[in-house]
Amino acid sequence: MPSITEAELTRAIERTLVARGKMPAPEARPVARMVLGYFGADDTVLDNKLSSDDRDRFYQLEEEGLLTSEEEDATVSRGKTWRIHYWLLKKARIRDVGQGGEAPPTDEAEAVYRSIRESDWNRNASSRSPPKP
């Protein structure tokens, strides 16, 4: 699958994190640029290459389904096992979200909350009917 462009990732971030109020709109392009800077032409990036702040952004993008993380065990000298964590771009999801209007819900709970009307969230006592005896 062809590489993700900065414009595609920026649109996907705008339609997920920005649209849900989890990131200010002016940060979308710099975050996309930062993410693609780590990946370059590769589809994976080692977790230990990330700064702490950048790792936090990667986790935000993972929550939106734009990135995913995996791990594998590798045996090194003297039989010691190391666990290697790495990140992958979810290119198909990034493209789908970037081309669509609104990002599809990433889980069932979110879908339920989005389906509840604003008026149903109103806790004003005058708008509720009294409990039945």
In words, what does this structure look like?
The protein has 133 residues and is α+β, with helices and mostly antiparallel strands. It has one domain (6-115). Helices cover 41% and strands 16% of the residues. The protein is built from 5 helices and 3 strands, in the order ααβαββαα. The chain has helices at 6-18, 28-39, 52-63, 91-99, 108-115, and strands spanning 44-46, 67-75, 81-89. The protein has a 3-stranded antiparallel beta sheet, with helices on one face. Helix 1 (6-18) packs across helix 2 and helix 1 (6-18) packs across helix 4 (91-99).
Jot down its keywords.
alpha+beta, 133 residues, 3-stranded antiparallel beta sheet
Short description:
The protein has helices at residues 6-18, 28-39, 52-63, 91-99, 108-115, and strands at 44-46, 67-75, 81-89.
What percent of residues adopt helix (DSSP H or I)? 40-55%
Task: List low-pLDDT spans.
Answer: none
Radius of gyration: 20 Å
Count of helices?
Answer: 5
Q: Which shape, going by the Cα principal axes? A: globular
Write the layout of secondary structure elements.
Elements: H1 6-18, H2 28-39, E1 44-46, H3 52-63, E2 67-75, E3 81-89, H4 91-99, H5 108-115
Antiparallel strand pairs: 1-3, 2-3
Helix pairs in contact: 1-2, 1-4
